Amino acid sequence: MKTFNKTLIAVSVALASSQAMAAGFQLNSQSATGIGRAFAGDAVIADNASVLARNPAAMALFDKSSLSLGLTYADVQVDVKDVNFAGGAIDLGSIDDAGSGKVIPNFYYIHPVNDKIALGFAAFSNFGTGTDTSSLSKNQAAAPFDLLGETEVTTVNFNTSISYRFNEMFSVGAGIDAVYGEGRLTRNAGSTPLVDVDADGWGFGGILGATLELDQDNRLGISYRFSPTVTVKGDTTAMTTKDIPGLGMQNVMLDFEDLDVPLADIFQVAGFHQLNAKFAVHYTAQFTKWGDFEEITANNGTATLVGGPANGTQIATGVTQPLKSYQWKDSWLFSVGGTYSIDDNWTVRAGYMHDQGVVDQLSSLSIPDSDRNWYTAGMSYRLSQQSTLDLGIAFVKGQQVDLIEYSAIAGPVNATTESSAMYYSMQYSYQF
């Protein structure tokens, strides 16, 4: 068996892949109206209850209880081309279906208690991914098996928020986030499992926000989300080799009880301006603190010898293992959009977003991050005085990236990656 890096590079890939088509492994899919306008102004427009995902203070803009239910399907296309190593002597070829589609639901409810206080409850996702590059290693005697395989990550944010209106101009809000995370990862060298992760767990964070209503047609919003470190527990195993005194180089199975996965804080400002009875413009600037995402740590591990005369001997307990360093950088996204009311029943919207990538000096085959451009459109149809159906669509185009990543098995691996996606979203909103 070949020597596998003790840093368990593949484990870190499990919870940090970027095929969600936003910076790092962040999702932008919280509502159909948001997708239709590239999330421009979403922290302050407050045309339905989904504003709760961006700014709890905006609940103060509601004078009736409001409900929004939605589904988004993200069809992600990831091309991994010309994967080669050993100075180009071994070429693993290309794969054009490494990404996977995701159905992402959401739920929002806002209840004004009185003219000062409102309460809100929501369930949505800010982070997630899904990729499979295992076909690149099939029928290969030598391959960077520690970099190739199946990855699936899901998070759900359960939010409870409250807002308070000080006066006609100024409102504030705060919320608590309970974030559930679930991850699945496999890395195999033929029939030999190198890494097998099946874990889930919880983390707790929060959000603060404020709105400033300059007048009836112009308002600004600001929010800061404190994202937690999610501790996931479950089956996490990895194979490595280690020089054991008196035994020499031995295969070692590492079993960990939990992994600590830090998520990035999110700060945003947004504006909305109703220019006339028909047309409004809106915009957002969002800063995500991916620079704090340095590594994933495995905790409470045991190390057991595999094979040889000492097979099954436990050589260490309570192992804490820092995983691969990422050295990501903080990122910005900027979006601008417009909304046009055709008549009392029909509204259309469109938007553009530029989203910066987060990978800095350390690139990754499993994290082909890059700057992205979003081109979006949407529409709303008023079913009745109380209910609305919203549709949104977005085309996301990432840049082509040439990268080199180090494999503990194969050494430097070269590849070219490119990602794109289509988002399709629908949403039903009701005011009581």
UniProtKB/TrEMBL annotation:
SUPFAM superfamilies (UniProt xref): Porins
Domain of life: Bacteria
Main location: membrane
GO CC annotation: cell outer membrane
Protein location: Cell outer membrane
Keyword match Signal: yes
Signal peptide interval: 1-22
Keywords from the named record: Cell outer membrane, Membrane, Signal, Transmembrane, Transmembrane beta strand
Keyword presence, Translocase: no
Membrane topology: Multi-pass membrane protein
GO molecular function: long-chain fatty acid transporting porin activity
Matches recorded under InterPro entries: OMPP1/FadL/TodX
Family the entry assigns: Belongs to the OmpP1/FadL family.
Protein name: Transporter
UniProt lineage: Bacteria, Pseudomonadati, Pseudomonadota, Gammaproteobacteria, Alteromonadales
